[in-house]
Write a structure and sequence with these properties.
Elements: H1 12-20, E1 29-39, H2 54-65, E2 68-72, E3 75-81, E4 84-88, E5 94-97, H3 104-125, E6 127-130, H4 149-157, H5 163-169, E7 172-177, H6 182-202, E8 208-209, E9 212-213, H7 219-225, E10 232-233, H8 244-252, E11 258-261, E12 264-267, H9 274-280, H10 289-297, E13 300-301, E14 303-305, E15 309-315, H11 321-333, H12 336-346, H13 351-364, E16 369-370, E17 373-374, H14 375-390, H15 400-406, H16 412-420, H17 428-435
Helix pairs in contact: 2-3, 6-13, 6-14, 7-13, 11-14, 12-14
């Protein structure tokens, strides 16, 4: 009988290798662009199971444009074509995840091309995609989860009072950036964490929820604050360095939701942290590197460190503002002088200032203060720094749509609320038409 090789114990150095393997000289930008599907006739959230629902939409589009299925237990949960992916989020939100590119214009062209090809399929299925941050009519009580095992486990586990709303109702835009080495990653991670509350404020775009004014300019941001404090929010204090091992330790000390073994999903439901799982095992299971990858993917800070830096805190927007988000970060994070300027701008604030702002932004967006300074004024400074850096690649115009609003102290939500309580006369059809633009 041959020798059986036992599994080697997972160590920190193995996990560190995942992060150091991301160090590269490239300066590309990635985007994950979620939108909300609504039925054209009822304006309610389009579901997965209906005859002309989102599953039917994916099947039809795959057939017409030669996309491959992504499945979970035989159910279609997404499509893949080369490096580009269209994935369903828990409440049927459609997310485009595109191959990273050096130019924002390349991302824009790809999104426009996919939109053009998908438009007739959407029309046949009676579905419209809207660039908005929260379901305008339906709430989580009537939005069924798609048939993806992990989402059903997460829905049972996440304990925040708005975790169901976050999973089923909201749509956002995430962007990803490269780092050259650990020092570069630490600096960019720190800057991005300080930028996030200002960016959340500038792109607030989810005030109308369930057909009424929610009282918040970004209900989506509010829902994330009330999802699960053990795995959301800052990965550390905003003003402290966060080298790879420090970030990893934050992830390790959060509870494990589930692990996979072959085709079987094993629910852990928070009965061990990943750190203890590594030390002691759990129910005869030993931790593996794949377990850590899954666990890290279920850790939800606004800025997530992986082989790249992923920034996750923005409402879905439209009217060209969807490209302003990657442009602003690109201008800042890929320019040494811009990072210097941002660090100088933020030097007068302490970690508590950023934390307090994070909790004030969902209700007030740009109409709040940080340490006595108007957030809208700081936001304008951020945009100026980003645009100045983008001039080198002639990409500064991508910032214009949001700059024009910010200079007036307005977020997209302010425009919507003015119309909602004014000329739209609380007509949900007018909101949805606007959100398609």
């Amino acid at each position: 009988m041959g020798n059986v090789k036992t599994q080697e114990k997972l160590e920190i150095k193995d996990i560190l290798g995942l992060f150091t393997s991301g160090c590269k000289a490239e300066q590309k930008v990635g985007i994950e662009y979620e939108r909300l599907p609504v039925f054209s006739d009822t304006r309610r959230a389009a579901d997965y199971y209906s005859e002309s629902g989102v599953c039917s939409l994916l099947r039809d589009f795959a057939r017409e444009d030669n996309w491959d299925y992504i499945t979970d237990d035989g159910n279609i949960i997404g499509l893949k074509q080369g490096h580009d992916v269209i994935m369903l989020e828990p409440g049927c939100q459609l997310e485009m995840s595109l191959e990273p590119a050096e130019k924002i214009s390349d991302l824009e062209k790809k999104i426009n091309l996919i939109n053009k090809k998908m438009r007739p399929v959407l029309k046949r299925n009676g579905i419209e995609l809207i660039g908005y941050g929260v379901s305008p009519v339906s709430t989580h009580k009537t939005i069924k989860l798609i048939p993806k095992k992990r989402y059903h486990i997460m829905a049972k586990y996440l304990w925040g009072i708005l975790s169901d709303a976050m999973m089923r109702e909201t749509a956002g835009i995430q962007v990803c950036f490269d780092f050259a080495d650990e020092q570069d990653a630490v600096r960019k991670f720190k800057i991005a964490n300080k930028l996030t509350p200002f960016m959340t404020a500038m792109f607030a775009n989810s005030p109308i929820r369930g057909g009424v004014d929610s009282g918040y300019k970004t209900f989506r941001a509010l829902s994330w604050l009330n999802t699960d404090n053990e795995r959301c929010g800052f990965a550390g204090e905003a003003d402290k360095d966060c080298p790879f091992e420090t970030y990893i330790n934050h992830v390790l000390n959060s509870p494990v939701i589930f692990i996979n073994r072959g085709n079987t999903t094993v629910e852990v439901n928070g009965r061990t942290t990943f750190a203890d799982f590594m030390r002691y095992g759990w129910n005869d299971f030993e931790a593996t590197l794949d377990d850590f990858k899954l666990h890290a993917n279920l850790y939800f800070p606004e800025v997530r460190l992986r082989k790249f830096i992923e920034i996750r805190n923005h409402d879905c927007v439209n009217h060209g503002m969807q490209y302003a988000i990657p442009a602003i970060y690109k201008g800042i994070l890929y320019s040494q002088s811009a990072m210097n300027d941002i660090e100088e701008l933020f030097s007068i604030f302490n970690p508590e200032d950023f934390s307090e702002l994070r909790y004030n932004v969902p209700k007030n967006a740009l109409n709040c203060k940080i340490s006595g300074f108007e957030v809208s004024d700081i936001a304008q400074d951020i945009l100026y720094i980003a645009q100045k850096a983008l001039i080198e690649n002639n990409e500064q115009a991508y910032v214009d749509p949001v700059r024009e609003l910010t200079e007036q102290g307005l977020s997209p939500a302010d425009v919507i609320l003015k119309n909602w309580h004014g000329s739209w006369n609380k007509d949900i059809n007018k909101l949805i038409k606007y959100a398609q633009g």
